[in-house]
Design brief:
With 84 residues, the protein is mostly helical. The chain is 54% helix and 0% strand.
Length: 84
């Protein structure tokens, strides 16, 4: 690929973006429409937005009480317990 062809692809990308991020956003839009059409407006009054369904979206950490933390730690210990 020479510099002229690269420049053409760069212009084309500006007009018609392509790639994984664009495909993910298109899928998120479709998922958003489906979720909003099935949303219980009493339980979730604000509609979903496509960003709610984007891959890699950062979710705030779930608050855990000490019992949940203990149960998780016990499950890890049991899973990796040595049986010699």
């Amino acid at each position: 690929m020479d510099s002229g062809e690269l420049a053409e692809w760069m212009v084309f990308y500006q007009l018609e973006p392509f790639g994984d991020k664009v495909a993910d956003y298109r899928q998120a839009q479709t998922t958003c429409v489906i979720a909003n059409s099935n949303r219980d407006k009493n339980k979730k009054p604000t509609p979903f937005v496509p960003e709610d369904f984007m891959i890699g979206k950062k979710q705030p950490p779930k608050e855990q009480d000490w019992e949940e933390m203990r149960d998780i730690l016990q499950a890890y210990c049991k899973r990796f317990e040595r049986t010699n």
